[in-house]
Design a protein that fits this description.
By secondary structure, the protein is of the alpha/beta class. It binds alpha-D-galactopyranose.
């Protein structure tokens, strides 16, 4: 890994003319990675602290202590905040779906709870959080499927997405409302998501943006395909954001590889080349892209250390384990 003595340029300054560059964080990370965040990032996402199970673990008990710390940091440093996420099948308690007698709650009662949840959370974050991933990961391409089989789908029916976006728009008419999903450029999933979005737009549902998670690996990042997906989503009149990017150093295409002890130079080079290619593409379509968020800050702390293999160290980001810029960082900044 080559290191220069020069103090590196700032990522967010380099991309100021293109789109805000963000990172997903916890309150611990704003302490441990505060210097990098202040210098290089213009936007924050709460990695977990605005998910349903965190904000309303029990009915009527709302907690914002952790997300408030992140929002206060963003405010202090003039950063934007993305809201993530209101409706998802994970990080979800059981209680919204249970009726008074222990039987499944009625559609009406689940919708009332959803409305109450969205209104309370957005009343709290209004003015600080400029956009929301209202629904996360709702499609499922398997078994010729369309919508993922989730507690929301079972309890409410297909219109739970429409309802969630309408509640969110009522609660915060200024927030840009996103549908967020994974593998959004894979042809089968892409087609389903386009169908979902077209349907919502036809019904007048207030959806304003498409969030492409885009968690990737060096053996599967396909920049041309990602570009085509961005252009396709934007053709619906939606803004597009890359919401959860990281670039795993493993080649897991045939199943998870053995753990590496240190990042091999050749793989870091490949990673830097791919980051370069990706950001060149994004600068080219930057009129369609209103944000880019990394799922993490530096390689010392990434969810990929425990996914898809628990305890397998990974190095997916632009800063290394010592918070030094990697060659990938230099390529991304110099390209801009
Ligand atoms: C998904 C979710 C994120 C996060 C990541 C893994 O992409 O949208 O909130 O949980 O998985 O950390």
């Amino acid at each position: 890994m080559s290191r220069s003595n020069q103090s590196p340029a700032s990522l967010q300054q380099a991309y100021a003319d293109f789109f805000p560059v963000g990172a997903a964080v916890s309150p611990e990370v704003i302490e441990s990675h505060g210097e990098l965040l202040r210098r290089h990032f213009g936007s924050l996402t709460c990695e977990n602290d605005l998910k349903f199970a965190r904000t309303q673990p029990e009915e009527g008990t709302f907690t914002f202590e952790r997300s408030d710390r992140i929002i206060a940091f963003a405010r202090e440093h003039g950063m934007k905040v993305r809201g993530h996420t209101l409706v998802w099948h994970q990080a979800l308690p059981d209680w919204p779906f249970v009726g008074g007698d222990g039987a499944p709650a009625t559609r009406r009662s689940v919708l009332e709870r959803l409305e109450e949840h969205i209104h309370t959370v957005l009343a709290h974050t209004r003015g600080d959080v400029y956009c929301w991933d209202v629904v996360n990961e709702a499609v499922d391409e398997r078994n010729g499927g369309f919508l993922r089989d989730t507690p929301w789908l079972q309890a409410v029916g297909k219109d739970y997405l429409d309802m969630a976006f309408r509640f969110a728009h009522e609660a915060d008419p200024d927030a840009a409302l996103f549908y967020n999903d994974c593998h959004t450029d894979a042809p089968d999933r892409h087609a389903l998501i386009m169908r979902l979005l077209r349907g919502m737009l036809d019904r007048g549902v207030p959806v304003h943006g498409m969030g492409m998670q885009a968690h990737s690996r060096i053996d599967n990042l396909d920049v041309a395909r990602l570009r085509a997906a961005i252009e396709d989503f934007a053709s619906l009149g939606l803004q597009v954001q890359i919401t959860e990017f990281d670039l795993s150093l493993y080649r897991d295409v045939g199943g998870p590889e053995e753990a590496l002890k240190a990042p091999p130079a050749g793989r870091l080079e490949e990673q830097a080349r791919l980051y370069d290619e990706l950001f060149a593409m994004l600068r080219d379509v930057s009129q369609l892209v209103t944000g880019f968020t990394f799922w993490g800050v530096a390689d010392d702390r990434t969810w990929l250390d425990n996914f898809p293999v628990k305890g397998r160290k990974n190095w997916p980001l632009l800063f290394d384990e010592r918070h030094e810029p990697k060659d990938a960082f230099r390529r991304v900044v110099e390209g801009a």
